[in-house]
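Internal ticket #5521
Category: modeling
Description: The requester needs a full-assembly model to guide mutagenesis choices. All entity lines are attached below as received. Residue total reported by intake: 685.
Assigned to: D.W.
Attached entities:
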Amino acid sequence: HRSPLNDFQRLRATELLAVPADPVAPLPERGSAGQCAQRCAASLTCRAFHYNRQSQLCQLLPWTQHSPHVQLQKNIHYDLYQKKDYLRDCIVADGSSYRGTRATTEKGLRCQRWQATTPHDHRFRPSPRNGLEENYCRNPDQDKRGPWCYTVDPNIRHQSCGIKKCEDAVCMTCNGEEYRGTVDHTESGTECQRWDLQHPHKHPYHPDKYPDKGLDDNYCRNPDSSERPWCYTTDPSREREYCRIRICKKRPRPLNVTTSCFRGKGESYRGRVNVTVSGIPCQRWDAQTPHQHHFVPEKYPCKDLQENYCRNPDGSEAPWCFTAHRAIRIAFCFHIRRCPDELSTQECYHGHGESYHGHVSKTRQGITCQPWAAQAPHVPQISPVTHPEAHLEENYCRNPDNDSHGPWCYTMDPRTPFDYCAIKPCSGSAVPSVLENADVMAFEQCGRRDERLQQKGR
Amino acid sequence: IVGGQPGNSPWTVSIRNRAGVHFCGGSLVQEQWVISTRQCFSSCDADLTGYKVQLGTLFKDPGPGDPDQQTIPIVRIVCGPSESQLVMLKLSRPAVLNRRVALICLPPERYVVPANTVCEIAGWGETRGTGESSVLNVAQLPVLAHGECNAALRGRLKESELCTAPLRAGVGACEGDYGGPLACLTADCWVLEGVITPSRVCARIDQPALFIRVSLYVDWIHKVMKM
């Protein structure tokens, strides 16, 4: 049930280019990514492969991103898979499989090239099978202390390179939701299943669907706010299991703590609202009735699960709580005010700002405005050509179409065609209230409902 | 919806997070655009990968075989003018309009819906035991005149807010309804006059309920869809 892809680290939409181009690049072959991984694993020279998901073509490569004269490049047609052993800068078990590029000992001595026999003669000759290369640290004799090398110091024959075990190389804080290390085995030593595969265990945590959870390859992660990082296992009889990862000594100071409002999803909200908007008290976090749950305060030390205050320990949409009502397990606390997240304004405008000629050139979210004369990243429908009289200078905020909400601009963010600017109406700026005159309503076609349950008596 | 009853509102959509859980409502104003409220979303450039809208069904969590159900990924969020508390959500593909799915009209710019117009809120939110929480609930609320409402709120009412009168039976929107519609039937057409936003307490019997006055932002809505 173990996928051959488990030995590889995937980089999406990326190509590995040899510089200059390799004249004898291996011809691509057709197959699944798994078959391609199998071919690469079986080849002594293969260290990576390109995989084109659309054409299902796979091209084996004799180098990785750490090899000389190669470079990574964005390419939406390829995913790049590289052998983990060549990329990891930590070791698994005794490090016999380590193929990284560390070339100094733990005391900082430079390593002797394996090819060389001076200053130290030795019996370990490089071969495609044993991975001895250049002067990189290796463990050809399964030394318990891990990868080592002969040193260039005539007085010191060899020395350990002091490469850490992966579970110690990157520590975790709190519940490990931010852990991005490379441990890929569980506490019991079982290998993890890749997050981008649905076998042997089907699961909801697709990496594409949770881009902020770092669900890379088959590394241990904590996407669902469990107590610690975990993974689905390659053992069909055991769905998931925790991983052993060192806890950092220092606990991080909570950032951007707010009490009277919440920002983003409210993970750092530490206020005291403890009643749902429908008037039901929240359940205490240290209680298991009326609702059983796993958010025990002691197991979530960084989440401040005090009393029965609204909190967001699992990255939900907003602070929430278990409710004291048996029939209502969870309620969001959206009634807590959101903290303002717009830039403070420097200038102001009169009316709708149609005569504003100031120099503010950022949107209220802090994005830089696109010059009015530019054609990218957005092709403007309004420009100095179409509106010569509107003073559309450089990338200053303006209101050429008399937008009732003030000066705006096209933005340099490709995902945001336009936005309003960090300018506020001047106090006392007279704009007729909407309540002073009501227009007669006229409609076209929408808003019709062809059947109404009321007429049928619910 | 507290104090409502199961009903039909074919422009009301359910907004679902990555785990598929309903957390807010919205209104379909164009085949590929939904209006909701800023309060439901973490930021104006939130990564909504995995977030979806569900429409075409009365059920909050329909079974697999529901024929008219449509579930469409959200690809972009656009925040409204600062005071508006509105957001526009672009869908990855147009919704299919049918017997269960319809667009709701937008009012003319800056239109003020007359007091005592009977409008309707709809949503899959908390019912506090007053309705059937597994299906869409609707409730009727009369619009309250701006002056009257401003007096009841001791002068704190904004021009961008619209009020409905409190009902002795305790009728109103609640948690899970935010972002959904206040729709008013005018000239045989349903019009999106307001958007539901969080209040401190649901369905109060002694205070008006507040909604975002959509007519103040119709120009922005059209501009976003055009841009």
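Resolution: model delivered.
Comment from assignee: The longest strand of chain B covers residues 70-79.
Ticket closed.
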